[in-house]
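Predicting structure from sequence has reshaped protein science. With that in mind, we have picked out one protein's residues alongside their backbone shape tokens:
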Amino acid sequence: MIPLVAGDSTLGTLNTARIIPRGYSNDMLRLLGHAAQFLAAALMSVRRLEATAKAERASATAHELAAQRVHDIECLNRVFRLLNDPAPLNRRLDRVARELTSLRGVDRCELALLDDNGMLRIAGRSGWSARPVDDLEGPQGEAVPEDSIHQRALAAEPVVQRQVAHEAKHAAAQRKEGLHEDVAGQRHG
């Protein structure tokens, strides 16, 4: 057993054995000692390189997060400018919804406003097909009573989770239906 020492640090040991029950010659012990010194120096270099790479990755991650935050702030500034634009409100809100989908983690956006009668109307949308998700049924501009808004908001899962769950249920139903067809085919076949 030969210690792996680099500077003041002991990194481990180099263990060797012989099948023939005979000790090592002095030349062989010197060779193994040099090998242990070389291994220790190489291991220390590898550890330093790994620490440097880890620090660089952390720095890159921090830089990416900072860049994303700057992007998000710029996006919100563009939204603020759009809201102050003289264009018609419905056109501005569609542009605001499109802009908000550039925020980190936002794939779809829908803006709904309460009208004078307390009804919620979809005013801007981006990332959804013509038919919105179950939160607000109907085409753009259809009203939803205000009291149902609060009930839906309290009971609703995030839209993306609900859509994924719906797609998973649909896929499971199709697989189950396929299994029933296979079993029925085997009985008749």
Q: What stands out?
A: Strands lie at 2-6, 9-14, 109-114, 119-126, 143-145. The CA atoms of residues 11 and 43 lie 8 Å apart. The first strand starts at residue 2 and ends at 6. Residues 26-83 form the longest helix (58 residues).
